[in-house]
Amino acid sequence: MSRQMVRPGGRSARVQASVHAAVRELASQVGRDALTVPMVAQRAGVTPSTIYRRWGDLQELLSDVAVERLRPDTAPGDHGALPPDLTAWAEQFLDEMASPAGRAYIRDALLGDPDGSNAGRCSAYAAEQIDVILTRATERGEKTPDVETVIDRVVAPLMYRILFRPDGLDAAYARRLVRGVLDSAAEGREAP
Asked: Where do the structural domains in the chain lie, given as residue ranges?
């Protein structure tokens, strides 16, 4: 079970914010591979035992920081219709996740995730964003696929290519995936 509590409040939230900020600052100054728990603790103004007690080890801390960095800052853009909304989101998702920083965050999120909860949180972030897009489209009277179909037909292939076959990966690929899932939805077909 992950040691990280969900959305702590009060002192716990301040400690988390301070430790996360210390990790980000130190990673940019000395590099991620040079980080140590004592170094992070000193920068954050906490004891190393606080970090060990809360996160277990450096990898779990890096994983927690990565998951927070992968959380979207804003709602997906509203471009007035489902195709441009989902296309813009998929292009931005690809751009962020395929960047060197995005790949490092993905790696860290998964490496310090013994029970799979961080992967689940990252997946939930994408699903929440897609749900916002699909809900808006439904309210406009547009025919939409369901969230899981978009995850299976857009997000999953993007993530696979980002992680394992990044050569030649570009926005045109993301657009083709979106076009395919929307064409299937318009024709009333489910994902294969």
From this structure: 10-56, 70-186
What are the backbone angles phi and psi of residue 80, rounded to the nearest 5°?
95, -10
| pTM over the 0.85 mark | no
Cα separation, 35 vs 84, in Å, equals 41
Whole-angstrom distance, CA of residue 182 vs CA of residue 192: 13
Report the CATH number of the 70-186 domain.
1.10.357.10
Give the ranges where 56-116 is alpha helix by DSSP (H).
58-70, 82-98, 100-111
pLDDT tens digits along 127-145: 999 999 999 999 999 999 9
Instruction: Taking the CA atoms of 127, 121, 170 and 73 in sequence, report the sign of the dihedral they define.
Output: positive
Q: Class of 10-56 per CATH?
A: mainly alpha
CB within 8 Å of 51: residues ≥ 6 apart:
19, 37, 40, 41, 44, 61
